[in-house]
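Bench notes, afternoon.
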Amino acid sequence: MDRRQFLRTGAAGVAAASALSEPAFANPSPNERVNVAQVGIGGKGINNRVMLLGTKLCNIVALCDVDLEGSRTLPARISNGDAPVPDGESPGKYGIMEKKAPYFSDFRVMLDKMHSQIDAVVISTPDHTHFPVAMAAMALGKHVWVEKPLAHTFDECELLMKMAQRSGVVTQMGNQGHSSANRTQFEAWTQAGVISDVTKIVAYMNKGRRWHGWGQKVKDYPSEPLPKKLDWDIWTGPAQKNAFSFRLHPANWRSWFEYGSGALGDWAPHIMDTCHRYLKLGLPTTVSVERKGENPLVYPQETTLRFSFPEREGMPACDLLWYDGKKNLPQFESKLGKVETLAPGKVIYGKDRVFQGNSHSSTLNVIHGSTDALPEFDTKVPNHWMNFIQACRGEAKTNSPFHISAPLSQVLNLGMIAQQLGGTIEFDRESKTITNNSQANDMLTMKPREGWEEYYRMA
């Protein structure tokens, strides 16, 4: 097959991937701009585009979205000079581009027509389509930024790590707080022994979610007339195809097990990231769940998850508890007194101190124990988008590459299986299998829809 055939059949880059022995991409010189293509240009794609253009080190050369006529893609048209900036609003809100970029509704057509003009691909699509777009781009030697959580299934994360290593491209997951003092503080304090012997972490996100109220009542997927020019087949990607509904698109896909990752996948990458990395948690041995308002199709109204991690590299066993749901407030040890939890965040129980921090770039505070001799840490950190572009130029390494962000996402993938099935799952860290529930073990691996299988054979 030639490249065009690969892209059309959903086997983008199979031959390219099989031939890769060295990185397929030559970094541009520091004097050159990185040419970026965006897949998913509404919603989070808007913020990503504004922040990328703010680096002054890249060009947006292609815009791809399945719903180019949708209201959420209008900011992309404004930034691209196809619509005027609304009266009274700042052009900076939209990140006005220096040159117009072509539009595409199918990422495969975009990669086929523009592969020679693209250096990097930024993927801001629903969770269930992160994987095929990222695999296609990496196989063609393109650097990739993928929104969080990295992928929708455990095995997809595994394959993305393999392809990243094989292709040699720059990778970054979009948990932007990992390029901030949130990360540098945690790293400095663990290296200095200030954060040590952690045996329990309590993480929480108690804001209302889109599915709260109606999610527990769902008996089947809803159906509504398909909007004109919305490519529903590409939106569905490798997942099960259901009828269009505004309960799925735009933005509501996060509510459904088939397409989204719930509150856990949405917020935990911003809350758990430093704990997972610097406490070297890896993968859990058990995941147990308590649910309220559960439904076989939609995430529960409330979830309490317990991830149990064994002893590792001289660190004690550690339990990580996750609370979501508007009324499902976290529980803390009495010695802490009243703990304020209005903002999503975490409480970390160490040997001599207890710490609390919020999400994203928030730093930790000591809420129990000595505050003496706390190490200094770097607070002037290039933001996540600058970090990615600098890495694409060969000037830096990304802070959340796939070999770091994929294992974190896999922990969340296991939690999502528990949220869907209930009970406790037992996980073998060596074989990477669930040992006590065959249905749960089958859910580690995606069963792609016909026409999308080849992406899962590429790594």
